[in-house]
Write a structure and sequence with these properties.
- This protein is 31% helix and 17% strand.
- The strands form 3 sheets. The chain has a 6-stranded antiparallel sheet. It has a 3-stranded antiparallel sheet with strand order 3-5-4, covered by helices on one side.
- α2 packs parallel to α7.
- With 301 residues, the protein is an alpha+beta fold.
Length: 301
């Protein structure tokens, strides 16, 4: 607990076998306090894309311009037309992540860098437009579709807050984050209620999605792979994403150390909300490895 507090943690929850085993709040933060998910929300968007595909509203192999219209990027038309929903889900659109504002969704910010499918790069602007894909495919607002298909079904609180021409960020209490973690652990089912029935899509989401970054599924981080890439770098590191964590773990990770860790072999979900644990503002940090080093000792993993 002193460790968590020293690392600017606001909420920390451990769920074992679907039940809360540990729950602690810090610095006037409570079970009712609202906090942002940052990029941990990406994993929930990917899950929602699976539901939309299950309902026949879209196919992830469709070109994105079918739902976004032509000219949603500033790439040449033939290059833009190579980008599919799957490329948005896997961070392989080929659009330039090195633009001044990585979150910007305006066509002027979405610049051709490489052919879709040939380059992995953590690019939030290109991902964020999946919200518009879902909205246009479903005929309702992204927030409403999400609330109807996920939030209200599993008893979450919270809402997506859109920054104009930029990111779409989810805000909720920590237990809502935990509920989504349990939904992932249970492979898309809430108790006996199927939320995402497409087991093939779910397995694709939580397994390697392309051969460029083995540690990335559909907007979901994967542990235990032989190599990994991280945001802002094109380096391929010859190691697992979080070496001290269980090999079968997958995770929703957000800026300033917002975390949903899921460990199927241990029937374990771990939630962390708060300010950045250290000077890094990335979604994948040294804190992940340090934290799991301590959890493994405490939990005898």
């Amino acid at each position: 607990m002193p460790y968590l507090k020293s690392k600017n943690t606001k909420a920390f929850i451990i769920l074992k076998n679907g039940k809360i085993a540990f729950e602690q709040y810090f610095d006037n933060f409570t079970a009712d306090s609202i906090w942002y998910w940052a990029s941990a929300g990406k994993t929930m968007t990917a899950f929602l894309v699976g539901i939309a595909q299950q309902e026949g509203l879209l196919n992830i192999n469709d070109v994105s311009s079918k739902y976004l219209g032509t000219g949603w990027t500033s790439a040449p038309p033939d290059k833009e037309n190579k980008i599919t929903i799957r490329h948005q889900l896997t961070m392989t659109t080929g659009l330039d992540d090195g633009v001044p504002d990585n979150d910007c969704t305006l066509p002027s910010c979405l610049i051709y860098k490489a052919d879709a499918g040939t380059r992995w790069a953590y690019h939030t602007g290109a991902y964020t437009l999946l919200d518009q894909v879902i909205a246009n495919a479903s005929g309702m607002s992204f927030n409403n579709y999400f609330q109807q298909k996920i939030r209200n079904q599993i008893g979450m609180t919270g809402t997506w807050v859109k920054i104009p021409n930029s990111n779409n960020v989810y805000y909720s209490n920590a237990r809502s984050m935990a509920r989504f973690g349990l939904l992932l652990l249970n492979k898309g089912k809430w108790g006996t209620l199927p939320i995402l029935n497409d087991s093939i899509y779910f397995q694709q989401q939580v397994n390697t999605s392309q051969n460029l970054n083995l540690s990335y599924g559909y907007l979901t981080w994967l542990n235990g792979k032989s190599s990994c890439m991280v945001p802002k770098l094109q380096t391929v590191f010859q190691q697992a994403l979080i070496p001290s964590a269980p090999a079968d773990m997958y995770a929703a990770l957000g800026k300033n150390d917002q975390k949903i860790y899921v460990v199927p072999s241990q029937k374990l979900v771990v939630i962390r909300m708060g300010n950045a644990a250290d000077s890094s503002q990335l979604s994948v940090t040294n804190f992940d490895n340090e934290l799991w080093g301590k959890l493994k000792v405490i939990m005898h993993l």
